[in-house]
Design goal:
Blueprint: H1 6-20, H2 32-36, H3 40-46, H4 52-73, E1 78-82, H5 89-92, E2 100-105, H6 107-120, E3 127-132, H7 140-145, E4 154-158, H8 167-179, E5 186-192, H9 203-211, H10 223-229, E6 232-238, E7 265-272
Parallel strand pairs: 1-2, 1-4, 2-3, 4-5
Antiparallel strand pairs: 5-7, 6-7
Helix pairs in contact: 1-3, 1-4
The chain binds S-adenosylmethionine (SAM).
Residues 2, 4-5, 7-8, 11, 83-87, 105-106, 109, 134-136, 159-161, 164 line the site of S-adenosylmethionine.
Length: 275
């Protein structure tokens, strides 16, 4: 697998730990332990203290809720997980009967995920199609080949990917999503702030990422403006630790929005407006 694909085991390991909290857990992912091996728990241990475990739990729940609410409020029946990794939402969430989910990621990652889920006897709760591609190339033809219809509104979920892209790749990716988005399409995405790419607070974490060949390259301090520049209107922007993303283990104070420069992460729902 590509180096960056091991980060999918890492997020699966965080989801496994959250699931272990039982009644306190903010979601349940019973497939996560099997998908996290072999490197997920090792990567979590290496980066313990960076707030990443509660962050991944909060992000997972935020996007679970976003998917439920956006599908309930809009006539959207195709959902694309861009860089799906070891995410198991097609297997653990409830979906409209006529929905189709596309999981896009590198071929090796998707093959390994399929092998493990088959071993577990996991059954998807929705029509699920894999799209094995490199997102840095021209991947829309493969998505369309798998049945995706650009004329219909789409919910795109881009979780845990944007910071691994260069600024140019990030903007290009959101442009590609826009080019395949009919009116009424939505996006769920997370970003880090620029400070997280350079602050002393995250130095050791960044060094670890670089050592593993998966540096963080892209961040934004103004997610609303950034998204607007690529055709998306932010409808909800949250930071972990805000009341609606509450998690008893969130270790940091939420900084006032008008304070420039702190390390932040953004959880965002946006609507396609084009332009
Ligand atoms: C941190 S994981 C996130 C996975 C999943 N969305 C989650 O939140 O658990 C990053 C994912 O991005 C995928 N990825 C990164 N760059 C990619 C690329 N150029 N093409 C396809 N997949 C890519 C990796 O394979 C990996 O599965």
């Amino acid at each position: 697998m590509e180096a960056v694909s091991y980060t999918a085991q890492w997020t699966a390991a965080a989801r496994a730990l959250e699931t272990e909290r039982g009644d306190l857990a903010i979601f349940e992912d019973r497939f996560a332990p099997a998908l996290a091996a072999p490197r997920g728990f090792e990567l979590l241990e290496k980066n313990r203290g960076s707030g990443l475990i509660p962050f991944i739990a909060i992000r997972t729940r935020y996007l679970d809720d976003s998917i439920r609410e956006i599908l309930a409020e809009n006539d959207i029946r195709q959902i694309v997980f861009v860089a799906a990794g070891m995410d198991t939402r097609p297997f653990r969430l409830e979906w409209p009967g006529d929905a189709t989910v596309y999981e896009v990621d590198f071929p090796a990652l998707l093959a390994e995920k399929r092998r493990r889920l088959t071993e577990l006897g996991a059954q998807p709760k929705v029509t699920r199609n894999e799209v094995a591609v490199d997102l840095r190339g021209d991947w829309l033809p493969e998505l369309k080949g798998a049945g995706f219809a650009p004329g219909r509104p789409t919910l795109w979920i881009v979780e845990g990917l944007m910071f691994f892209l260069t600024p140019e790749q990030a903007t290009n990716l959101l442009g590609v999503l826009g080019s395949a988005s009919a009116p009424g399409s939505w996006l769920g995405v997370d970003f880090v702030s620029r400070a997280l790419l350079r602050s002393p607070f995250s130095r050791e974490f960044r060094r670890n990422l670089e050592e593993d060949g998966t540096p963080w390259l892209f961040g934004t301090d103004e997610p609303e403006e950034y998204l607007a520049s690529v055709g998306w209107k932010a409808r909800d922007v949250k930071e972990p630790g805000e009341p609606t993303t509450a998690h008893e283990d969130w270790p940091f104070e939420v900084q006032p929005r008008d304070r420039k420069g702190p390390s932040r992460s953004w959880l965002v729902r946006a609507e396609f407006v084009g332009g």
